[in-house]
């Protein structure tokens, strides 16, 4: 999962990504670079231009870094080293990484050389609240009163057998999907009303699952579900452009969020009087639910029984 963590951090903190490839999961064994990135602009953690990334979880970070550096220097796989930054990342603490960086730069093989360890990743996570929350869930240290939308979706959909398809909540709701798309392209605040608050959030989450991987990763790295007003107010103070989902009762003041460049997705249930601008998700009846289940490739007879 380490390449996925770094990929999400890059997506959360860099706006000008031209190409990004950080294979994770089973794909980490596919060969080639552990990561490749092209950006028009960089920042404290992301090099500008072309960069190739290598990861190592070994207890001896220097040994793995030396090995990867030598391998990629001797065989850069067609990359122009003179215009490329070499980045090595370890999740362990590496006390002499600055010295290693300096020595590798002096070899003048690459345009630049960087090394990141656990302390750097920790600081990077502090600049990306949504990724920080996702990472907390991943390692079993669930952040209190907040959640990332990918974890929410996986938990919500797994409450049924079979698990709900991401297409189910969008079936027969084409007008609502179109409003959601327009909001993501340029809106700031969107209210979505469904039978339950959870379904309104799941509607958003399921739509994200249907998007191209690069767009999906970018959204996952920016969306935070706030379960109480204190978390909501804390998120407002961040400079990153987040998509904040308040999941609590009581008045929501989204004005400050919008002033700071955040988006707000407000889920409400049918007990709340919605404004004329709200997107109302039509409730399913037996007929429409059957059609929605068939649309997710469940056989007709089984769909009829489930509906």
Structural write-up:
Helix 6 packs across helix 8 (197-209) and helix 12 crosses helix 13 (300-306). This protein is of the alpha/beta class and 307 residues long. Helix 3 (97-106) links the parallel strand 4 and strand 5 (112-116). The chain is elongated and about 70 Å long. It has helices spanning 2-13, 61-74, 97-106, 118-126, 129-138, 149-157, 174-186, 197-209, 213-220, 229-236, 255-259, 286-295, 300-306, and strands spanning 17-21, 35-39, 49-55, 84-89, 112-116, 146-148, 189-193, 223-226, 243-246, 263-268, 279-280. The model has no long low-confidence stretch (mean pLDDT 90). The longest helix is centred in the first third of the chain and has 14 residues, at 61-74. The protein has a six-stranded mixed sheet with strand order 6-8-9-10-7-11, sandwiched between helices. The chain has a five-stranded mixed sheet with strand order 1-2-3-4-5, with helices on both faces.
- What radius of gyration results from the CA coordinates? 22 Å
Q: How do the strands of the widest beta sheet line up side by side?
A: 6-8-9-10-7-11
Shape: elongated
- Report mean pLDDT, rounded to a whole number: 90
Helix content: 40-55%
Q: Beta fraction of the residues?
A: 15-25%
Spans where pLDDT lies below 50 across 5 or more residues: none
Beta strands, count: 11
**End-to-end CA span:** 37 Å
Helix/strand order: HEEEHEHEHHEHHEHHEHEHEEHH
Which secondary-structure class do the elements indicate? alpha/beta
In DSSP terms (H or I, runs of 4 or more residues), the helix count works out at: 13
| Main sheet properties | 6 strands, mixed
